[in-house]
């Protein structure tokens, strides 16, 4: 499969200044941007910056960023599912995982996350993929936002809906371990029935167990 990537960009205005939402961007471009110290949801900023550079280097890897001049203040990642998770078991070349999305506190509440997803889907190549994401409450900034787990879940769902991702049922044990966790996905317009059935088989692996 040819993992072609078409660059797109959109400008948004916030009370703190103008942001450029752009991508997919190359690993080389990522090395030239600074990475904000408040991007700490998954690992240290330095480690996460390096992780994004590595993802951008992958044939299928896609990084969309929100930047304030040359400073990255938000991002979303797309790549093949983690080899250790069930979603990789089908070896599907047209299944990408939205692995992480993060925006620094200063620029939250200004639709930056939604715009990251919107710009992601501006690339018509995304119609050739099933895009999935697993949402786990332990990655959410409940303390920083003062939201309950259920209110945060609603915010995440609304944001993902902007990118066309909707809720899907699954029997994945990690997702089922807490009712706020969820699987969301977007089936591209060019996806064939066989691929949909493969994805369904990944979603439900224990349907005949009692």
From TrEMBL:
<dbReference type="InterPro" id="IPR024699">
    <property type="entry name" value="AcuA"/>
</dbReference>
<dbReference type="GO" id="GO:0016747">
    <property type="term" value="F:acyltransferase activity, transferring groups other than amino-acyl groups"/>
</dbReference>
<comment type="pathway">
    <text>Ketone degradation; acetoin degradation.</text>
</comment>
<dbReference type="GO" id="GO:0019152">
    <property type="term" value="F:acetoin dehydrogenase (NAD+) activity"/>
</dbReference>
<dbReference type="GO" id="GO:0045150">
    <property type="term" value="P:acetoin catabolic process"/>
</dbReference>
<dbReference type="InterPro" id="IPR016181">
    <property type="entry name" value="Acyl_CoA_acyltransferase"/>
</dbReference>
<comment type="similarity">
    <text>Belongs to the acetyltransferase family.</text>
</comment>
<keyword id="KW-0012">Acyltransferase</keyword>
<keyword id="KW-0808">Transferase</keyword>
<dbReference type="Pfam" id="PF00583">
    <property type="entry name" value="Acetyltransf_1"/>
</dbReference>
<comment type="function">
    <text>Part of the acuABC operon, which is possibly involved in the breakdown of acetoin and butanediol. Acts as an acetyltransferase inactivating acetyl-CoA synthetase AcsA via acetylation at a Lys residue.</text>
</comment>
<feature type="domain" description="N-acetyltransferase">
    <location>
        <begin position="43"/>
        <end position="118"/>
    </location>
</feature>
<protein>
    <recommendedName>
        <fullName>Acetoin utilization protein AcuA</fullName>
        <ecNumber>2.3.1.-</ecNumber>
    </recommendedName>
</protein>
<keyword id="KW-0006">Acetoin catabolism</keyword>
<comment type="subunit">
    <text>Monomer.</text>
</comment>
<dbReference type="InterPro" id="IPR000182">
    <property type="entry name" value="GNAT_dom"/>
</dbReference>
